[in-house]
Design goal:
Elements lengths: L22 E8 L18 H5 L7 H14 L4 E6 L8 H6 L2 H10 L3 E3 L8 H11 L4 E2 L3 E2 L13 E6 L2 E6 L6 H4 L7 E2 L2 H14 L4 E5 L4 H10 L5 E3 L19 E3 L2 E4 L7 E9 L5 E6 L2 E2 L8 H17 L3 E5 L7 H4 L5 H14 L6 E5 L10 E4 H7 L6 E7 H12 L10 E4 L1 E5 L9 E6 L2 E2 L5 E7 H4 L12 E4 L5 H11 L2 E2 L7 E3 L1
Parallel strand pairs: 1-2, 2-3, 3-4, 7-9, 9-10, 10-12, 16-26, 17-24, 21-27
Antiparallel strand pairs: 1-13, 5-8, 6-7, 11-12, 13-14, 13-15, 16-18, 17-20, 19-24, 19-25, 21-22, 22-23
């Protein structure tokens, strides 16, 4: 779908006949920051002091603040707005601890002009979003939500906002993915309208009010944004989020920044505070886009974090360090999660994690769980289990990913998983909901046999619901057969949280292996 829209920004520039009263708007934007208050490493998880000292860290809210301040200063006396396309919530212990208050405090100080509601803003129900909106002074918008029946949010989240910048009226409209009812917890009183229908209506309203420029600030994912740009001609610019897409003009493997759809620039800036988007759009006197250019700015070690933010982050982080020592469960025996076992055979930690994953989404009709052994980084001793121990086992901040693939794809995934067992590769599949056997003496690709799902032989033609982590679902560790899976959703709860909660529910947890994986 993307290729039919893909044009370079340069093809849009009009060099002749441009109106004398052209207007350029600079849009600085973030999306899907996912509570990365602290800086991140190359795996998008929390970086440490050693990584900072070696210049290996990216992002963090203090770098976003510095980058915004620097760009504003460089664009002094030009037209600048700062937008966020949703999902500052969920993804670190700062969110677990402060439930959005940390994100609200820092975003308020950064001076956003508007923010879209993301699906994870509903992770703690309507109240979590309402508390955030009450804390910040900038408008939080979403135009395809009917909130009249939800007292906590009615009148707080608006359909749109109009900004006056450099003598122009800039209308910001927004849509949130309608499957939020499945991916988060908006409750029964939040009613969703079709994204394109809602945006069409809101754009028409703003046009009737004489707004000069209309920007759709969406949280629907890039593919839907491309559809929206094609379907709603009144929209001049689309700034998006939700799909965590890296767009760049320097990498042939990524969509162009911006991607043009019938003259409408569409942009997104990856996720996790690693980049700050900067889109410069020029309009003629009639409000038509005549040029669009830019690129995401990587917030690496060359960007010095804001000192005041660092001080505040350290203050807020103190109880988080204490949280890492919080006891969340108890183990009756050692839960074996060592590299040598979990990358070669069924291991107790692998069975625990896979069972926890499957239990979390079983009510969605999911039948199979697959966890890569390389994502399991430690064992847990007998006795009290702390959150810090769980995070040591699962340090990557991977999220649950659900999707649908055929039985044939499942077998191919298992073949991939055992295909490099002799090398101790991290792709070895720990599973739940199914059993399988393998023979490492056979050639790679011919090792799997006796695959059973729910006690019955796997049906190669049947479509199965699967849960894994977002790394595996996106093709990591050789699982390319999952990259184009149907109905994929990669942004579920953190795997460490899911595992900790499952452990707690079991009471004193007795580790087990039960023969779900057999070596021949």
């Amino acid at each position: 779908m993307m290729n039919r829209f893909l044009l370079s920004a340069a093809t849009l520039a009009i060099s002749a006949g441009m109106a004398s009263a052209e207007y350029t708007l600079n849009i600085l934007h973030t999306n899907d920051m996912h509570s990365r208050i602290e800086s991140i490493n190359k795996y998008d998880s929390t970086c440490n002091a050693e990584g900072e000292a070696e210049g290996e860290c990216f992002g963090g809210i203090a770098r976003v603040k510095s980058a915004l301040d620097t760009k504003r200063a460089a664009l002094d006396n030009q037209n600048v707005i700062v937008l966020d396309a949703g999902d500052p919530f969920q993804g670190s212990l700062f969110y677990t601890t402060y439930k959005g208050a940390a994100e609200a405090e820092f975003m308020e100080q950064m001076g956003y002009d508007a923010m879209a509601v993301g699906n994870h803003e509903f992770d703690d129900g309507p109240k979590g979003l309402a508390d955030f909106v009450d804390t910040v002074s900038f408008p939080v918008i979403s135009g395809n939500l009917d909130l009249t029946g939800e007292a906590l949010l009615n009148g707080k989240v608006e359909n749109h906002v109009v900004l006056e910048v450099g003598g122009k009226k800039i209308g910001i409209i927004s849509a949130l993915a309608t499957d939020t009812v499945e991916t988060s917890s908006p409750g029964d009183n939040v009613v969703f309208q079709d994204e394109i229908e809602a945006l069409t209506q809101d754009a028409a309203t703003l046009e009737a009010e004489g707004v000069d420029i209309i920007i759709a600030l969406n949280h629907v994912g890039l593919n839907k944004d491309l559809d929206i740009a094609a379907a709603v001609p009144a929209i001049d610019v689309v700034i998006g989020g939700h799909s965590h897409t890296y767009m760049s003009n320097d990498d042939d493997g990524t969509p162009a920044y911006p991607t043009m759809v019938d003259g409408t620039p569409v942009a997104q800036a990856y996720a996790y505070t690693k980049y700050l988007g900067h889109l410069s759009v020029t309009f003629d006197d009639d409000g038509n886009v005549t040029a669009a250019s830019g690129d995401p700015i990587v917030l690496d070690a060359s960007v010095t974090p804001d000192e005041a933010f660092l001080t505040r982050i350290a203050e807020m982080g103190a109880p988080i360090e204490e949280m890492k020592t919080r006891v969340v469960a108890e183990a009756a025996d050692v839960i074996e999660g060592g590299r040598d076992t979990c990358r070669a055979q069924e291991c107790a930690m692998g069975s625990l994690i896979a069972d926890a994953m499957l239990a979390r989404v079983a009510d969605q009709g999911v039948e199979i769980a697959i966890q890569n052994g390389g994502g399991i980084r430690a064992s847990i001793d007998a006795g009290p289990v702390t959150m810090g121990e769980v995070l040591t086992v699962l340090p990557f901040q991977n999220t649950l990913s659900t999707f649908e693939v055929s039985g044939e794809a499942i077998v191919a995934a298992l073949e991939n998983g055992v295909g490099q067992i002799e090398d101790g590769a991290g792709r070895f599949p720990q599973v739940a909901g199914m059993t399988y056997a393998f023979d490492a003496s056979k050639p790679s690709g011919e090792r799997i046999s006796d695959v059973m799902v729910g006690g019955a032989p796997i049906d190669m033609a049947k479509v199965y619901g699967v849960v894994s982590n977002n790394y595996v679902r996106n093709g990591g560790d050789g699982y390319a057969m999952f990259k184009d899976a149907a109905n994929a959703y990669d942004f579920g709860p953190d795997l460490a949280d899911v595992t900790a909660e499952y452990l707690a529910e079991q009471g004193p947890f007795t580790p087990y292996t039960d023969g779900r994986i057999t070596a021949k």
